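Weekly sync, protein design subgroup
Attendees: M.S., D.O., the rotation student, P.L. (late)

Item 1: inverse folding check
M.S. brought a backbone from last month's batch and wanted to see whether the design step gives back something sensible before we order anything. D.O. pointed out we never logged the input encoding, so this time it goes straight into the notes. Structure tokens as presented (170 positions):
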């Protein structure tokens, strides 16, 4: 039997084929990944739940704009839920049960004031940003500058292609 570079051969002289692991991150596994990411905001736990390594999801995020967008949306949604839970706790408090040395039990409400203040500051910042209106003239100026820059880049690319093809004309 013939042997390939690996020194291994199957019956009939065929060499074993390596599996393409990228095909292993199927749509079903991606759904598992996103479900766990939404529940935990933990990439390691989400990758494990999907049955892939962490590197696989990071490579996929880097290469796929759709995957990257869904990842960002999933994390935003999870943090929004966390923020709502923290807001509810700040508003309603949580019950704390204290058992005294004499065996009596007392229940009180605790309010996490530090969390409440942080949420208020964040809300004020977001409200201030939402209230900012951009001058249409400024937006139009930015569009013109961006269009001019894109045109300069296009011309530079064309000149580079001409130089690589041996054409010295511009």
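Designed sequence read out in the meeting:
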């Amino acid at each position: 039997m013939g042997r390939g570079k690996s020194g291994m051969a199957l019956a009939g002289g065929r060499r074993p084929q390596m599996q393409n692991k990228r095909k292993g991150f199927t749509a079903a596994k991606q759904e598992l990944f996103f479900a766990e990411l939404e529940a935990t905001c933990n990439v390691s736990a989400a990758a494990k739940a999907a049955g892939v390594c962490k590197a696989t999801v990071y490579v996929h995020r880097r290469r796929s704009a759709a995957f990257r967008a869904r990842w960002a949306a999933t994390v935003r949604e999870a943090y929004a839920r966390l923020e709502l839970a923290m807001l509810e706790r700040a508003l309603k408090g949580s019950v704390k049960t204290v058992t005294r040395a004499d065996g009596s039990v007392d229940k009180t409400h605790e309010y996490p004031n530090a969390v409440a203040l942080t949420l208020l500051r964040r809300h004020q910042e977001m409200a201030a940003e939402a209230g900012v209106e951009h001058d249409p003239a400024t937006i139009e100026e930015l569009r013109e500058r961006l269009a001019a820059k894109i045109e300069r880049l296009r011309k530079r690319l064309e000149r580079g292609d001409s130089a690589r093809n041996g054409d010295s004309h511009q």
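Discussion: The longest strand covers residues 94-99. The radius of gyration is 29 Å.
Action: P.L. to compare against the previous round before Friday.
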